[in-house]
Amino acid sequence: MFNKSAAAVLQALWWSEGLTRRELTSMLGLSRPTVDKAIKELLALDLITPLGRRPSGGGRPALSFMLNATARLVLGVDLELPHLDVILADLRGLPVKTKRTKLTGDLSDPLATLSRLADLLRAWTEEAGHPWGQVAGVGVGVPGFIVDGLVSILGRNLPTWLRVPAQKVLEERLGVPVQVNHDVHFMALAEAQRGGWNSRVLLYLALRPGLRGDMRLGASLLLQGEIYPGAHGNGATLYRAFVGPEELEGLAGEALAERLAERLTSSLVHAVTLFDPDRVVIQAEALGDLEPLFLERCRRHLEQALAGEFVGPVEVVPARVRGPSGAQGAAIGVVQGLARWPERLFDVGRG
Known about the structure:
The chain is of the alpha+beta class. 37% of the residues lie in helices and 25% in strands. The protein contains 10 helices and 17 strands. Strand 8 and strand 9 (150-153) form a beta hairpin. Helix 1 (4-14) crosses helix 3 (32-44) and helix 8 (253-275) crosses helix 9. The radius of gyration is 23 Å and the shape is globular. The model has no long low-confidence stretch (mean pLDDT 89).
């Protein structure tokens, strides 16, 4: 059993670039013997690593320590059915290895699908050369809603899952803590941390292609870098944010960008007036070369819709994080949880 002082020291070192024993003593209000004992315990667990000695004005240079970010790993998963993005990341959320694949079989059976997902995650981690015992947690983004820990997925282009205990099922199969959240919430989390957007209020939108030529428009609201889930897990959901294939049939180029911008803005304008975000970030990577034109049309429609309203200047910008941003955000979500409660790491990898 490891004491709270070791957890406090690990937490202090998590995001730092190195701290000395004296700095930790002063920062945490702990005695020097307590800090020495905590460092000894954390070194034995390989959770921290010594750095070089710092130059000093006199006396022996002090040794500093920092988090050993590769001592444990986390998995981030974006379950964009039937496609699947997976990222193996270190304890600061930096990717170690990535994979994009596709889940096969009957996706309408949630328990069987989650079972196949668990098997895939274990096998892929081992194939990547990392023992499963090194994994400290898994984050899974789903294209649905989570209420009381139960996942529901509904949509014309998605399998129907109703009140599925996805977290419980995956934790039983994987034997590690699992965090489940809406996929766009995780995408927004990746954008906030990796993209450098540290605004007070960030509204994130994702344009995601469906399976039948349709488009889904997901949203997330971040307040000071924290996901706003709402009272029931549906926070920041855009009303009727779905563009069916019949609306897009035969459209290409400028006409396609215009139609999507019109539909997005009709849902977005209410969110902007309600939340008054500092910045609106739009992930429209799926549009390829049409993305800049789509964003320009979104800005134009939003300005026209807000004319005369008392809304501050709204900056509409493209997402900086590209590729598997949902999986990146899922890994970051797990890392943030571990950084808040670092004692969860103490038994990871110990047999």
